[in-house]
User: Fold tRNA-2-methylthio-N(6)-dimethylallyladenosine synthase from Sediminibacterium roseum.
Amino acid sequence: MLELAGKTHDESRQGEAYDPLVQLPGQFKKHFYIESYGCAMNFADSEVVASILNAEGFGSTRNAEEADLIFLNTCSIREKAEQTVRKRLTEFRSLKRKKPGMLIGMLGCMAERLKSKLLEEEKLVDIVVGPDAYRSLPSLIGEAETGQKAVNVLLSRDETYGDIAPIRLDSNGVCAFVSIMRGCNNMCSFCVVPFTRGRERSRDALSIIQEVQQLFNSGYREVTLLGQNVDSYYWIDEQNDETVTFARLLEKVALVSPLLRVRFSTSHPKDITDEVLCTMARYDNICKYIHLPVQSGSNRVLQLMNRTYTREWYIAKVNRIRELLPGCGLSTDMITGFCTETEEDHRESYALMEYCKYDLAYMYYYSERPGTLAERRYEDDVPEETKKRRLQEIIALHRIHSLESMQRDVKKTFRVLIEANSKKSDNDWHGRTDHNKVVIFPKEHYQLNKGDYVDVFIDSCTAGTLLGRIVTINN
Ligand code: SAM
Ligand code: SF4
Ligand code: F3S
Assistant:
């Protein structure tokens, strides 16, 4: 999936708290603190939760000790993600001992997976709410306040929260996520998401365009359209008698303004179409960057994973991307040590990475998830040290490719969207290229702001950052 400042899609994003709402003291009856884990969709959901709570008179705080309600928006994708949340819950329990009356709520995928277990058996939380039940949060809070068990983990076939304007609390004011669909119908055998997020459904296209337009009007200059499988987006606009595919949606979003950058994530190799690639080629403001998770380079393993494409199909897609969008940035997800994976299978994954030379890759070793097809059908038979050794091998290979990718950009000029001050110095800007690479450059004497575009000549690079200087101002 795409990166926002190098970190959006990464499920390893952990425990980021949101900024407080702008508020007057005493304006809100209670305060909540929310910490988010997992993928960009979860972070986007926290913004919906903030909006629902805010409408009911709750204000947010960045300081957990000040909060009346603590929410953890959780991830179940790997066992480690759940362990991190459990550890954090234990810390909050000790905070609650000092502040009786404080309520702790678990939201998101782990809430959906474990249902009332953490509330009833382990007594770690007071409220449990799954990803499709956030509208019931205010009433659940009321129930928990009277000492009742407050649980709602019902999955929905049509909930998209399309009518809720998310509150952008942890925002640089330039880049925003926009959810375009929820759930997933793909049933990859290793993956817990279809069970925690339910069936796939697309959000009303009109509400998406409206949200994007509002973001643009309030100064945002980049949107990332989010879904587990964006290429299967499908909406029938009865008002205008139009079928909106993902390619058409992308075009509509791009037309909001040429000054708005458009990104999207995640594409499934079986579904990404020429129509999408041609739409990307037609609009300068659709960023030339595709996250195309492969998961394995071995046909045998891909079949066990139920990914429904072959290595050859995947390579043909990559070739097509490079033909229609020369220089397009490409990233992937890769899993090592899936059930029955042999050294030969591993070598095929390695060779595929050699072929694709990804600009960015998220690499994991397989973590068996309860209830998934793989857990029910196959033995998790690759020893942990083998999984980890194979992971280290592909990480080492990818480091070479990503450094080469950075080095290729040196002595070239790129259009950069300014996103923030550099973390290291207020005298430098932090921005990104169309291809999603971070660029740091001195502000010099120019009167620029976040959200402005500049052409930057790249003088040098590190493994993760391009370093340059302004050559032209583009606004
Ligand atoms: N829908 C996207 C896709 O199909 O690529 C993203 C799915 S998931 C949120 C993000 C990544 O986590 C997957 O692409 C996969 O590489 C990894 N992942 C999912 N389940 C896993 C598991 N059981 N063990 C290790 N990695 C896993
Ligand atoms: Fe999981 Fe596969 Fe759906 Fe991605 S496409 S969320 S990996 S089931
Ligand atoms: Fe995302 Fe983790 Fe759920 S990756 S969809 S928050 S299991």
Observations:
- Residues 1-13, 18-25 have pLDDT under 50 and may be disordered.
- Residues 11, 38-39, 41-42, 75-77, 108-109, 192-193, 196-197 surround FE3-S4 cluster (ligand 3) (CB under 6 Å).
